[in-house]
Amino acid sequence: MKTPLILDFDHSVSLEHATTIDLSSWQEAIRFGSSLKTYQQLSHYLARILPSNYGTVFMGSGDYHHISTLLIERMPIDEPFDVVIFDNHPDNMRFPFGIHCGSWVAHIAKLPQVHHIHVLGITSNDIGIAHSWENHLRPLYGDKLTYWSMKVNTRWAQWMGLKKAFQSFETSDDLIHTFLQMQANSTRPVYLSIDKDALSDQVVQTNWDQGILEARHMMAVIDAIKPRLIGSDVTGDVSEYTYQTGWKRFLSRLDQQAPIPLDKLTAWQATQNAFNQSILDRLMP
Questions:
Q1: Which of 6, 24, 162, 255 has a beta carbon 3.0–4.6 Å from 20's, enabling a disulfide?
Q2: What are 237-278's pLDDT values in tens digits?
Q3: What's the helix, strand, coil split of the chain in %, to 5?
Q4: Which domains does the chain have, with CATH numbers?
Q5: pLDDT tens-digit readout, 12-54
Q6: Closest CA to 120 of 145, 157, 154
């Protein structure tokens, strides 16, 4: 098992036997979103300081999920691979100001080494008809991206010829069962990216509105794809932060991010770190 790596933007992750890189000075610039110029500056910085070999990467809050793009771009593999993402949101939304935690999937969909992307556990109305225009449609039409959702009305996608890209279910069990059946005969390498907001808030508490998956659903998928894993990352931890930048405060309010009750933060982070360790234990050979 390779040593886990913590990209420590927000001091929310604490794991024994992990390598930690302090990136707190980047928090305001990168959290939630950034310009492409700033994002490339971080990419160049990480290229200089990242260990040559590392295991699962922990990045803190789901506000940093777009950092997965940098990690996926770095995968030292020549053959095409799939990306399996747990997320309550599609992360394939339009963002004209650069890249952010809700738009990064559109960026990795452009990478030639990425064969297909599966986003598992969506219950957000981001894929409903009211927000349909915000979704990047090219990777959906191009058979590069599939949404796996529950209890969201996605009939608009059928009207637009996107039925195959929208896998809709009533229950978590049905979704996971169908996905595992589809993966049963696959031999393609897989990169796994976990945002724990796909989980019910009875499992962990995150910064974002949450889905309905249970821990057993996530672990079943890990067990199924583990022999083919080439890399993995985890976000969805919980931290409190006040943006200094006006546009970030504005967009955060639009996304209806609820404030974190500070009297519960320590307990929530302890639960999160215990769950992070359970993910690492499940990923072990």
A1: 6
A2: 999 998 888 878 887 777 767 788 889 999 999 999 999 999
A3: 40, 20, 40
A4: 5-283 (3.40.800)
A5: 999 999 999 999 999 999 999 999 999 999 999 999 999 999 9
A6: 145
